[in-house]
Amino acid sequence: MISAEHLSVTLNGRDVARDVSFWLTNGEMAALVGPNGAGKSSVLKALAGVVPCQGEVRISSAPADKLSVRERAKYLAWLPQTRPVAWNLRVEDVVALGRFAQAPAPFDRMGPADQAAVREALDKADATHLSGRPFEALSGGEQARVHLARLLASPAPVLLLDEPCAALDVAHQLDLMQALTTEAKAGRTLLIVLHDLELAARFCPRILVMQAGALVADGAPEAALSAQTLADVFGVRKNDSGRLERANR
Fold first, then answer.
1. Residues 112 and 193 in one domain
2. 33, 227 Cβ separation under 8 angstroms
3. Where among 111, 139, 155 does a domain terminate?
4. Which of 7, 25, 9 is nearest to 158 (CA)?
5. Which of 155, 189, 213 is the last residue of a domain?
6. pLDDT tens, 38-53?
7. What is the DSSP-derived secondary structure letter of residue 90?
8. What range(s) does the ABC transporter domain occupy (predicted)?
């Protein structure tokens, strides 16, 4: 459903991603992990088309650079790491932005099917009770759930999520990962940037590991997050209890 072939990204004269290649199929849910500055967000931005890149990105077999912005939005929805909202919209109007490529209208002006999609997305994100409230009146965690609902409201078959668990409490992190698992089972393709390796290994059947702009491991959690990779890339190891700790301790 989405692929990168020899993807490279240069920002401000610095190579932040180099020769990254991978393929994700329908219904696949993968985590993109790595230390700070490894290039994870830059790869997602390149896939979403918001930063220039070298190499080739294909979405549903089509070269992404041949798609218009609206056409790409029909195939792909992106949840960035930083999520500013320019106006103090109502919650349901923020979520309705996820339908923009298909139904460019505020919630109250949408048709019944699009309104139903917004309500369903709010329910999936455990944010239905926030409807009607101004976005800026919400806590950071509540805003994160509304942004998740905006992503889920999109009909796009490919979802890119950059640190979706940030600002969420533990219970809502688990709820979010379970909701994303359900989306994958329904046939959507998901690539999720995560810092919590244990959460990634628990929910994502495939792990892609980046280090210094390069893709250094790709596979099932037990293979991609081997003891050698944990030590070399993250500087951690598993102790006798199976918990991660600094490797030099």
1. no
2. no
3. 155
4. 25
5. 155
6. 999 999 999 999 999 9
7. B
8. 2-237
How far, in Å, are 21, 94, 162, 216, 238 from residue 228 at the CA level? 22, 43, 26, 12, 11
- DSSP 3-state of 66: helix
pTM: 0.94
CB atoms within 10 A of CB 243: 10
What is the arithmetic mean of pLDDT over 146-175? 94
CB neighbours of residue 172 within 10 Å: 20
Q: What tens digit of pLDDT does each residue of 140-157 get?
A: 999 999 999 999 999 999
What is the residue range of 122's domain?
Answer: 86-155
Same domain, yes or no, for 183 and 241? yes
Phi then psi for residue 186, to 5 deg, are -80, 0
Task: Determine the 3-state secondary structure of 55 from DSSP.
Answer: strand
Residues 28, 133 share a domain: no
**CATH code of 206's domain:** 3.40.50.300
